[in-house]
Amino acid sequence: MKKNKRKISDLGTIVGGGTPNTNKVEYYNGNIAWITPKDLIDNKSIFINRGERMITSLGLNNWCQKNGIYG
Predict the structure, then answer these.
(1) Among 12, 10, 13, 5, which Cα is nearest to 68's?
(2) 17-49, pLDDT tens digit by residue?
(3) What SS3 state is found at 62?
(4) pTM for the model
(5) Which Gene Ontology MF annotations are present (predicted)?
């Protein structure tokens, strides 16, 4: 199988703006991977599906609202 190299930005929108509030325990230890630049640098595979942090849907929704991302 031929592997095509692509930029991450070709696959979706890259959004910066910090992480969900780390003081809110209800935002963490969920099942959504929160991928950071450090995770990408440390990753040794061409795939990534986990980050150092895993967040909850509550944490994701709060972060999206804070950064004006809806839908």
Answers:
(1) 13
(2) 788 999 999 999 999 999 888 898 898 888 888
(3) helix
(4) 0.72
(5) DNA binding
